[in-house]
Amino acid sequence: MIEPGAATLPQLRALMQGAPAELTPGWRAVTQASADALARRLRTGEALYGVNTGFGKLASTRIAPDQLAKLQLNLLRSHAAGTGAFLPAPVVRLILALKAMSLARGASGVRPAVVDSLLALLAHDVLPAIPAKGSVGASGDLAPLAHLSLVLIGEGEAFAGDQVLDGTQALAMANVAPLELGPKEGLALLNGTQVSTAIALAGLFAAQDLLRTALMAGAMSVDAARGSDTPFDPRIHALRGQPGQIRAAATLRALMEGSAIRDSHREGDSRVQDPYCLRCQPQVAGACLDLLDNAAAVLLREANAVTDNPLVTADGDVLSGGNFHAEPVAFAADTIALAIAEIGAISERRIALLVDPVLSGLPAFLVAEGGINSGFMIAQVTAAAMVAENRALATPRSVDSLPTSANQEDHVSMATNAALRLAEMADNLATILSVELLCAAQGLDFHAPLRSSAAIEQAKSLVRGVAATWDGDRFMAPDMAAVKRLVQHGAFASLVDLPA
């Protein structure tokens, strides 16, 4: 069970993959108390933003008591102005769960029925159709959350598997009656950073798995190029003290432990030092690891946060603030993007080293009969193209801001844009790593009958299970696609034990 405000990263990852969202007991009472407190304040006749006033620039416009329900209904309809492709099912699952957990903390003034409706959709895997684009990451992820919320009132669209349902059908499948929105409930559903946070978390989880895969690919490349494991000596990294670097070095040491290829050239090797792409892996991967760890901490706090406005305190105060401003999410997403870009950049340099006979000592382009065969020549070019794309995509989004709502909302985070590009970057990185894994496996084949470590041989077997040794030119793309699928399914990441 998940305690609202205390979810863990493994729980959030499991929710994306379809785990049930069962909340710990007690949330219903605090949520009802918040709704009751708001009702009492509303009876005083004072102006409460978004409850009996308009929104944004229209906040000074008072709404008549008999129009309060219509105010919330109109809010959902008018703000459902998203565009673009629909968000993928795992992300929508997480959005539903994050919104339910936030409202269940009892600071948003909504009835328990609102949370129940969100959880019912999730339990039946009836997922609102949410266009990916249209949020600037301030005042909440308004447009995408409006598309989600329309389904709760029997409007909009949702998916049940591959079936597209209208809102009424979706609620029927989830055995839920359409919500009749109470005061503030439309605003509470729309306010919040749940969309940008869920998208960023999806990017984080992908980046974490890809970093583990990159460590495996990097270790394979070191052995394929007959490189040294001395740069992974713990004494080097202890003297610098960077935690990610220490962890990455320990992982690389463990992956190479017991390699007969490494043992074969401990003496008499004319190379004093390897190129940076081999030697500086702990420094680069470790810095990326530290970035991802920091982003994970920020996003975990955000996933557990209440980012609504106004907030209703336990003692009945109604506080207007700005928790909906997603600057922390934007910064976290931007740093994840930097990590993804750099993981790919150094991987491509290892690929370039392996195909270069001067640097690697291996046959040119990793094929025995060069000239008649081009081997991995253009696979390296494809990896370079992916690196170039990721460099462009890594440009920070958080430094951008466009005023909205007639300058009432005059500084925004662009967090949703920052998070959205992570999926494309992760896909590009998976391509780069698939090329490196193919090249490294090919390089290891040239050292037969010598074998690498048990861990590296296991990874090589995964590659060879879908792509045979390259003994002459053939259709390259299917091999790349097959290894990429393994990368994206976490097959190589699962072989890597990254110390805490």
From TrEMBL:
One of its GO terms (molecular function) is histidine ammonia-lyase activity. There is a cross-link at residues 138-140 (5-imidazolinone (Ala-Gly)). SUPFAM superfamilies: L-aspartase-like (SSF48557). The modification 2,3-didehydroalanine (Ser) is found at residue 139. Contains an active site 4-methylidene-imidazol-5-one (MIO), which is formed autocatalytically by cyclization and dehydration of residues Ala-Ser-Gly. It holds the Pfam family Lyase_aromatic. Keywords: Cytoplasm, Histidine metabolism, Lyase. Belongs to the PAL/histidase family. PANTHER family: HISTIDINE AMMONIA-LYASE. This is Histidine ammonia-lyase. It comes from Falsiroseomonas algicola. The lineage of its organism: Bacteria, Pseudomonadati, Pseudomonadota, Alphaproteobacteria, Acetobacterales.
